[in-house]
């Protein structure tokens, strides 16, 4: 295996893994497991599947992500970003279709890692990630409104927000005060503990207290036991997802959406971990591990796996030193499930909805949104378009359109950096013809700047006998820029004007020569100093 795809686990053990590091990783793994326990079940329920599938995802997927991944601190598991995609897939294709889509997504993620596509996926513009994350937060909160208020829906709850809101409004008369009270109690406990005791596992404490309160007061609220019959206390036997060609064709778009979203979410989470630790993850290794983790999750009946930003950040803050922490987090979750599975039946669904409501609120990066609005109108528009498309259209469509708009904004800004500056109106250069003009080309000469640069080049007067293009400060030139410059050289050559290109990079010379300039009155030099020392009789390309 090449070094670029080597898991960070191997790197850690090569460095030497001490007992002290194991203790630190065990403590951080336990901390993350306590956070992940209620969150994994809540995400699974919101995704339209049973809570045990969320635990299977966190245990199997989380272990494989840490074992094989390219980040020292990444925590894998079910993520809120997938709630709409997973619930839609379950509605359209059933649980069999979801498992097959997760399996195929794993294969596609592995292919992305092998083909080194991680180097490109992580180039998602910052406004897109901000708008995307905020849109996901709104979707998560909207998916929990019925559980937060104990609404009795008249039919299956639709996924799209535009269809969901009218049904929720129509169901408001069925609001349950006990469910609403449990949800508000859960949210209040989480907020109070976060402010007064930030080191305590607020999510688990809040859910536990809410469960005890509902049980002691015999509140008429829906629980995991009343809706799902509890959760098993063991892992299921692994099995391949059911396969048929028709089902494969039907779930392929969903698998591609899982792949795109999973790649972006996991690499974004790894970047966040890098920023907190000063480390650098291996993006392609991470994609490869995410692929294996999704395959493993589907074999055990789990849902989509990806890197989770909140749990990864918790892992870093808890003092994790290596991927061992993530593997231990999965083992602790397995232990919790084996020992305490019967207790999960008493957890109110309104409490889990309160947990997700807090998660959704924390996902909205309010300072970043304000900064974008104040600093750049163009980037603020990109963020808002991404946000609205994610909410009202589709997650993948929001990412693609946001990326396209970000690329157009980048091209526009880069095109403004291209300048063609006359150093002198007419400046004789020693050992060259006396009527010489020198133009310095600055910035990036690429397709975005080609039209403007072409107009400037066409305006260069042809009364000179020598035109010098100083390209020594040119940051890059693509084939479109070379084509425009080659056209100017041909035009000058037809009028008997010699062109001199000053450039140290051999790539520029090769690119221009490929545009059939062999017979043009053209000279290449590596610097202005070399230009001064050339014999006056030397002409033509070098």
UniProtKB/TrEMBL annotation:
It is a multi-pass membrane protein. Residues 437-512 form the STAS domain. Pfam families: STAS, Sulfate_transp. It is found in: Membrane. PROSITE patterns: STAS (PS50801). Keywords: Membrane, Transmembrane, Transmembrane helix. It comes from Peteryoungia desertarenae. InterPro entries: SLC26A/SulP_dom (IPR011547), SLC26A/SulP_fam (IPR001902), STAS_dom (IPR002645), STAS_dom_sf (IPR036513). This is STAS domain-containing protein. PANTHER family: SULFATE TRANSPORTER (PTHR11814). The chain crosses the membrane at residues 26-47, 53-70, 98-117, 124-145, 165-193, 200-222, 242-275, 287-310, 330-361, 381-411. It comes from the Bacteria.
């Amino acid at each position: 295996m090449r070094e670029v795809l080597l898991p960070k686990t191997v790197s850690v053990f090569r460095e030497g893994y001490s007992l002290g590091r194991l203790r630190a990783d065990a403590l951080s793994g336990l901390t993350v497991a306590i956070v992940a326990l209620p969150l994994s079940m809540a995400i699974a329920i919101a995704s339209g599947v049973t809570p045990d599938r969320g635990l299977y995802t966190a245990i199997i997927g989380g272990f494989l992500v840490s074992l094989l991944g390219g980040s020292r601190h990444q925590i894998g598991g079910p993520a809120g970003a997938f709630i709409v995609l997973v619930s839609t897939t379950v509605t359209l294709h059933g649980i069999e279709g979801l498992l097959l889509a997760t399996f195929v997504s794993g294969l596609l993620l592995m292919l992305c890692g092998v083909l080194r596509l991680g180097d490109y996926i992580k180039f998602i513009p910052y406004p897109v990630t901000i708008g995307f994350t905020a849109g996901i937060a709104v979707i998560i909160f909207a998916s929990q409104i019925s559980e937060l208020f104990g609404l009795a829906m008249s039919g299956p709850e639709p996924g799209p927000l535009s269809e969901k809101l009218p049904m929720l409004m129509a169901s408001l008369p069925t609001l349950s005060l006990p469910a609403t009270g449990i949800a508000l109690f859960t949210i209040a406990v989480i907020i109070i503990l976060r402010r007064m005791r930030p080191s305590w596992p607020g999510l688990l404490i809040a859910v536990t207290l809410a469960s005890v309160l509902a049980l002691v007061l015999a509140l008429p609220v829906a629980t995991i036991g009343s809706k799902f019959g509890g959760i098993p206390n063991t892992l299921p036997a692994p099995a391949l997802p059911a396969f048929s060609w028709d089902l494969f064709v039907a779930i392929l778009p969903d698998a591609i959406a899982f792949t795109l979203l999973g790649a972006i979410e996991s690499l974004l989470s790894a970047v966040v971990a890098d920023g907190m630790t000063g480390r650098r993850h291996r993006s392609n290794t991470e994609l490869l591990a995410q692929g294996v983790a999704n395959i493993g999750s589907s074999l055990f009946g789990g849902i989509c796996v990806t890197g989770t930003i909140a749990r990864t950040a918790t892992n870093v803050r808890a003092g994790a030193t290596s991927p061992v922490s993530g593997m231990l987090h999965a083992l602790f979750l397995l232990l919790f499930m084996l020992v305490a599975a019967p207790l999960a039946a008493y957890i109110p669904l309104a409490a889990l909805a309160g947990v997700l409501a807090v998660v959704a609120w924390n996902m909205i990066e309010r300072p970043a949104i304000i900064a974008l609005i104040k600093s750049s109108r163009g980037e603020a528009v990109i963020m808002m378009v991404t946000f609205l498309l994610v909410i009202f259209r589709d997650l993948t469509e929001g990412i693609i359109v946001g990326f396209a708009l970000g690329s157009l904004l980048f091209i526009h800004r880069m095109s403004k950096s291209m300048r063609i500056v006359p150093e002198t109106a007419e400046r004789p250069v020693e050992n060259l013809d006396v009527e010489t003009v020198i133009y310095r080309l600055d910035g990036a000469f690429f397709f975005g700047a080609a039209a403007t640069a072409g107009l400037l080049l066409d305006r260069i007067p042809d009364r000179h006998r020598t035109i010098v293009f100083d390209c020594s400060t040119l940051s890059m030139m693509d084939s479109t820029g070379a084509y425009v410059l080659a056209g100017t050289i041909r035009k000058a050559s037809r009028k008997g004007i010699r062109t001199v290109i000053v450039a140290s990079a051999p790539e520029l010379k090769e690119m221009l020569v490929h545009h059939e300039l062999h017979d043009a009155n053209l000279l290449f030099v590596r610097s202005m100093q070399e230009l001064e020392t050339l014999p006056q009789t030397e002409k033509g390309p070098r």
